[in-house]
Amino acid sequence: MSKPIELLAADLNPQGGVFCPSAKADMKLWNSHPKVYLDVGKTGQAKCPYCGTVYQLQAGEHFHGH
């Protein structure tokens, strides 16, 4: 299992999410899967259903969305 991709709250979109595949996960377009939205802001962590990459907020980071 690979190490989670750590994010800052500023890395999330205004709704608290990120998209996978992501450049932050060092994914190349030629070997990627369909683009999916992951809600990281709600729980501080989300796992991609396609590739299993886990995105999480760094320790001490908090998302304060609208």
Question: In this structure, how is the largest beta sheet organized?
Answer: 3 strands, mixed
Q: How many beta-strand runs?
A: 5
Number of helices: 0
**Radius of gyration over alpha carbons?**
11 Å
Which strand-content bin applies to the residues? 25-35%
Strand order of the largest sheet: 1-5-4
Helix and strand pattern: EEEEE
The gross shape turns out to be globular
Termini gap: 33 Å
Q: Structural class given helices, strands, pairing?
A: mainly beta
Number of domains: 1
DSSP helix fraction? under 10%
Low-confidence stretches: none
Mean pLDDT: 88
What does this molecule look like?
This protein has 66 residues and is mostly beta strands. The model has no long low-confidence stretch (mean pLDDT 88). The chain has a three-stranded mixed beta sheet, with no helix packed on it. It has a two-stranded antiparallel ribbon with strand order 2-3. β4 and β5 (54-57) form a beta hairpin. Helix content is 0%, strand content 27%. It starts with a strand and ends in a 9-residue tail after the last strand.
